[in-house]
Amino acid sequence: MKFSARSRLDQLVSTTALSFSVAVLVCLSFVFVGCSSPSSPRGLHFLKVDLEEFPKLRDLRIRNSFNINDAPITRGGRNAVEGVLSSIDTSPKDAINAATSAASDTIQAQIHDLKSHLPRYYIVGLWSYCKAQNGPEMVCSDPSTSFSFDLSAVLDSAPKRVSDILPDIDQSLISGYRRFSQSVIWMYICGFVTTTLTLVLAGRKLFLSKGSSLLAIFCALSSMLITTATFVVTVMYGVFTSKIRSTLQSYGVEAILGAKMFTTAWLAVFFSIGCSTIWLVHLFCCCI
Question: Any stretches that span the bilayer, and where are they (predicted)?
């Protein structure tokens, strides 16, 4: 009778741990599939960078303070200004106004050229990103374990470089975090593998009543990997979003964290810790 009760308890523990392991794998599968292709589930991204209003340049400051040597304009704009100044035979005030207008028109033309080559927004997943062009279709990069979203490189990939129009932006702040990003990818992959092994061992325990110690070890390792990866990715994209907002929000760029993806990742943490707790407590109770 006592043996039967103990056997039922083992089955209940094994079944619960099995269910938790399956839940972890489902959550991680959604994390992996996010932004991996145009058909990926909508809303599964860590970060969205909206470029609809970019670049919004607040009149470029040249309407308030104009100086041909110090104005924040490109070489083409400065040549246009100098051409206007040399051809106008009027008062200095009128000449400055005309030159300012010419510089503004030149820069606005550059802005239009830049906007025509940029997508409406980017969404960033674990190991790839997607961009939305003017139409409804999206283009996604191939998933890669060496993936890192570098916004400065993405913006400067357009024929008209952002640094030519906005030379005062510190683009090192929006260059991404390559080492952290790659570490997170590998921790999630290892967490997925160890969770799969946990699932196999939980099934063995359920049917053969063997392998509790090894199962507890893999559960604990899986929890450590998934928890660390989720914590790092949360902090990483939180800091990255803050940097984008402080650097580019005034120019029309919006950075938004993806609530669905972070919820999914933290659910994986919850189920993984639950699985580890069940087995560690069960092993400890069996040994005392």
Answer: 12-33, 185-202, 214-240, 265-285
Write the pLDDT tens digit of every residue in 186-197.
Answer: 999 999 999 999
Maximum mean pLDDT: which of 3-17, 106-120, 137-151, 160-174: 137-151
Residue-by-residue DSSP string for the chain: -HHHHHHHHHHHHHHHHHHHHHHHHHHHHHHHHTTSSTTSPTT--SEEEE-TT----GGGGTTTS--TTTSS--HHHHHHHHHHHHH--S-HHHHHHHHHHHHHHHHHHHHHHHHHHS-SEEEE-SS-EEEE-SSS-EEEPPP-TT----HHHHHTTSSS-HHHH-TTS-GGGGS--HHHHHHHHHHHHHHHHHHHHHHHHHHHHHHH---HHHHHHHHHHHHHHHHHHHHHHHHHHHHHHHHHHHHHGGGT-EEEE-HHHHHHHHHHHHHHHHHHHHHHHHHHHHH-
Q: Tell me the backbone φ, ψ of residue 130, rounded to 5 degrees.
A: -125, 150
Residue 216: pLDDT band with limits 50, 70, 90: confident
Note the pTM of the prediction, 2 decimals: 0.78
Q: Which domains does the chain have, with CATH numbers?
A: 1-54+120-287 (1.20.140.150), 55-117 (no CATH)
Dist. CA 254–CA 133, nearest whole Å: 17
